[in-house]
Amino acid sequence: MGRKDASAARIPVEQYRKQIGKQDYKKSRPVLRATRLKAEAKKTALGIKEVALVLAAILVLLLAFYAFFYLNLSSEVDLDLDPNEN
């Protein structure tokens, strides 16, 4: 009894799926292949967000590297300039 109600609800969905399937068969194989390759490329492509994060990380590392050496060299220069030498 419950089965009749459940199967009746699926009929429009199955008709819709069959209609979509028929439309796909109307397309030629090269078009289907190109569509699939385009979808795969879109899925695996790097987004702008990922590229920006990588560039920001590189920039932060370079600035930290520069600041480390700047502070080390500036402290050595200050020690070399002893005003009591002359």
TrEMBL record:
Q: Which GO terms describe its cellular component?
A: endoplasmic reticulum membrane
Q: How does it sit in the membrane?
A: Single-pass membrane protein
Compartments (UniProt record): Endoplasmic reticulum membrane
* UniProt keyword annotations, A-Z: Endoplasmic reticulum, Membrane, Transmembrane, Transmembrane helix
The cross-references to Pfam families, in alphabetical order and at most eight, read: TRIQK (PF15168)
The question of whether tRNA processing is a record keyword is answered with: no
Q: Which InterPro entries match?
A: TRIQK
**Source species, domain of life:** Eukaryota
So what family is this one in?
Belongs to the TRIQK family.
Q: What PANTHER family does the annotation carry?
A: TRIPLE QXXK/R MOTIF-CONTAINING PROTEIN, TRIPLE QXXK_R MOTIF-CONTAINING PROTEIN
- What's the protein here called? Triple QxxK/R motif-containing protein
Gene that encodes it? TRIQK
